[in-house]
Amino acid sequence: MMRVGLIALTLLVLLWALALWRAGRNEARAEAAFPPEGQIVEVNGIPVHAVVMGEGPDVVLIHGSSGNTRDMTFALAPILAENYRVIVFDRPGLGYSASFNPDGETIEQQAEILQKAAAQLGAEKPIVAGQSYGGSVSLAWAVTRPDNISGLVLIAAAAIPWETPLDGFNTLAATPTGNVTALPLITAFVPEWYVEKALDKVFAPQTAPEGYADHFGPGLTMRRASMHANAKQRANLLKEVRALQPRYGEIDVPTEIVHGTADDTVGLGWHSHRLIEQIPGAELIELPGIGHMPQVVAAPEVAAAIDRAAQRAGLR
What we know:
Blueprint lengths: L1 H32 L5 E5 L2 E8 L4 E5 L6 H5 L2 H5 L4 E5 L17 H14 L6 E5 L1 H12 L6 E5 L12 H6 L2 H14 L2 H12 L8 H5 L1 H4 L2 H21 L10 E6 L11 H4 L7 E5 L6 H4 L1 H14 L4
Parallel strand pairs: 3-4, 3-5, 5-6, 6-7, 7-8
Antiparallel strand pairs: 1-2, 2-4
Helix pairs in contact: 1-7, 4-5, 5-11, 7-11
């Protein structure tokens, strides 16, 4: 019996060693295949990855959960760069921006560091546009840093406290135990084709456009540190939105809200229909049949909303 136990323990140790080796190899491959697109800006010693393109009024783009700059540079940023200077950030802990809060960076902390990074790049009062979780960060920017924003564009933003619990994966991945046990196995053994297939669920009822996965780099999202940072942020988001919501009425910059009618991830009715009543002068653009990723599948419509915010702000 003792021998059987020893053999089982040895096999577990070998499996664990294999998982750590494969995870490290897969992470190195992802970073080699999808290196930083832009430059690293240091804010109080914290690296923030920024992509800058185009000329004109400043627009900051903030990606959503599990994302990186490449989500915005696939379609939306190139359109905007024809008329604006576009700054696309990796949020802390994702892409190539460093994590700095072991408990998970709050939306207000993220707004602060991204605003300071934008200022270092010469964008003192940009239009700020964020999708999904990035919309929550954009709301925090507008509320807590009102002197450093000219206009606000919210794309399928998570804005109103919700009632559904956090999913099981992120609940586990946010914990130290999950970080040490589950995430190495996922990074090591979940194949890329499965991750790319999962992208279609994010885009539903659309599918990820041809070339999106090859541009976005799902392997960057599958790194252990990125999954852990993202999960901690997701785990804390509800209480942060609850705390921020009472201050939405303080937002006094031109605000455009863009939301797909078929979004099952961040529902139009629950979020944007309620949000429009809480931000003075906000305008809502509903995109018929569009799911959770308008910045990719309806990029011209999102760019048009940014144009309207710029015009209302006197920048165009």
